[in-house]
Amino acid sequence: MDRLSIVLTLMTAAVISYAVGVVLLMFGYYTWWAFAGSWTVGFILCWPAAYWISRKIKANDPFWNEKRKDEVDGWVPDPDHREV
């Protein structure tokens, strides 16, 4: 269970949505559909981006132990086990 990516999800959603919204405004799209589209893109890409950032942070941390299980039993990992 990667708790860091869960925390980073909110921040990456805001950053991605804002960046896409600013780009759309620069190109002259001043409609509600442009803002809804930027929110949708941010919503879709927030978790993969947060998971990637989490992996990079943990890979660069000298105190992080990278031992983890290869397979997870079921869809949701057991919260009592070690973090992946």
Helix and strand pattern: HH
Query: Using DSSP, what is the number of strands?
Result: 0
Instruction: Decide which structural class fits the backbone.
Output: mainly alpha
**What overall geometry do the principal axes of the alpha carbons give?**
elongated
Explained architecture:
It is a single chain. It contains 2 helices and no strands. It is an all-alpha fold. It has a domain at 3-59. It comes from Histidinibacterium lentulum.
What would the keywords be for this entry?
84 residues; mainly alpha; 2 helices; 63% helix; 0% strand; elongated; membrane; DUF2842 domain-containing protein; transmembrane; transmembrane helix
Q: What is this entry, summarized?
A:
The protein is mainly α.
Topology:
Elements: H1 3-26, H2 32-60
Helix pairs in contact: 1-2
